[in-house]
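Q: What residues go here?
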């Protein structure tokens, strides 16, 4: 690839893009071959690549941490959404609909910092509760009889 001459570089890139457009499968095959070759090199000497990764981290850890902090600040809900999707199979739109149904607060009180309440046996999402009420339900093990005993105790 011509690196020095800007016009030659532009022409090379135009030709390369035209070749990809003419046969897109060729690029995918080439990438698959490159991935396979990388796996073979890694399998032959994994410690070499571990050292390389440790060296990179030692040299760039502060910059990487700063970059990650900027990304997290720009995407504050990403991990919350991913966590709900993974644990409860709850998409952000479904969570927002549930939050709107409950008018943004716990079913039992008016707290607005909520966690997802779900049935531990079936995995079905029941609603959104504050942390205290969710822990109270968990203490009873989702047992209706235990909740009734608590109600009888509170009533005196």
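A:
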């Amino acid at each position: 690839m011509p690196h020095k001459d800007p016009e030659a570089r532009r022409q090379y890139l135009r030709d390369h893009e035209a070749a990809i457009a003419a046969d897109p499968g060729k690029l995918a095959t080439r990438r698959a071959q490159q991935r396979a070759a990388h796996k073979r090199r890694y399998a032959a000497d994994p410690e070499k690549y571990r050292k390389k990764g440790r060296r990179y981290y030692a040299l760039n850890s502060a910059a990487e941490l700063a970059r990650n902090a900027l990304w997290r600040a720009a995407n504050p809900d990403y991990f919350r959404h991913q966590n709900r999707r993974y644990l409860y199979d709850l998409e952000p739109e479904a969570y927002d609909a549930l939050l709107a149904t409950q008018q943004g607060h716990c079913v039992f009180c008016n707290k607005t910092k909520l966690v997802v309440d779900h049935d531990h046996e079936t995995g079905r999402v029941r609603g959104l509760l504050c942390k205290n009420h969710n822990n109270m339900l968990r203490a009873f093990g989702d047992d209706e009889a235990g909740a009734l005993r608590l109600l009888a105790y509170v009533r005196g």
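A: Context that may help when evaluating the design: The chain has a mean pLDDT of 88. The beta strands are 114-118, 125-130.
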